[in-house]
Amino acid sequence: MKFGLKFVAATVALICAQGALAQSGETVKLVRIDPLTGLLGPVGVNQDKSYKFFAEKFSGAGNPAGVKFEFTTIDNKLSPTESLNALKAAIDQGARYIIQGNGSSVALALSDAVTKYNERNPGKEVLYLNDSAVDPDLTNSKCSYWHFRFDADTSMKIEAMTTFMKDQKDIQKVYILGQNYSHGVQVAKFAKENLARKRPDIQIVGEDLHPLAQVRDFAPYIAKIKASGADTVITGNWGSDLSLLIKAANENGYTGKFYTYYAGVTGTPTALGTNGAGRVYQISYAHYNMGGQMDKWMKEFHDKYNDDFYTGSVIRVYQTLGAAMAKAKSTDPLKVAAALEGLKVTSFNGEVEMRKSDHQLQQPLYMAVWQKADKKYPYSPENTGMTLAPVKEFPNYVSSTPTSCAMKRP
User: Which of 52, 56, 136, 185 is deepest in the core (most CB within 10 A)?
Assistant: First the structure.
């Protein structure tokens, strides 16, 4: 009888242990739907390399679940329609984890499509992991249980940016320039609201939206900025739309400041050169000189690809997925989604939390300025001899913003 009880107990313990490691050795397919061609293609190509690089780092023993991450990218040409076709193809290929980031218009379309797919296909659910699309609506009025954002949204970034700007007394006249889609509209909206609250003396002397990834010469926009008398430009531009804007500013003698989101992204460091020193700022969840393990990874990435790693949310995607799968004891997206809610992990710059109420990652933000690389901040992107040096850190609670999300859970 005693032997029988001991055998049963041992069997239960073994089953529990096997359950805890049930997902160990499984291959988890991740498919990113983003541009690999066109004017914004170089950004997507860099990020494709980033995901493949860190898939190796975080597979197997690199994550607590012991899973292997397999990563591929489908070129969506920055088109919502192409993205929906890519989503169907990815699901048909067996992928249940979809990643995207470049373009909030694409993000909104994917979030809606994934939600509807999951409603129609119980037991075959798909998760959408958003690494870069920052339209606040994605975690507010259009939030979805199946969407998780790893970047800080525009309301968070503008909150931190304007908190910094309110103490810069030389800022008197601001021009807002952005890409003509949801992201550009939201940057303008939150910038005006925050400046009116924190620095009502600042004048908004101009505002423009331009076509996304179509403008090749920003000289006419720079002429308007100069004519307005603006001493500062706020822009959420990214990729070629930022690098060509900065290039036009340098070539046409605009000497005001730029407050940006993406000054460190492919092509922009080269466009900045030494002319942007001390007058181009970036608000982001990371910068080139984070120190510690991040510095080692960045060096290894550069040595392998002769390119610069800058999409830090890639790391957080792998870290939180591994932790959530270990917590859920499963790779099933339905169980992993539940485990992701409220999950806290220690990342490259401290503890971050996936807020349960809206699936918006809560994380520190940094204001960095473009300057000459030195011993303290040595990393030089695109061999420019320059770098983004941190000047202010904003803890999680400072940049956190409220949500109106009314989450509908399965």
Answer: 136
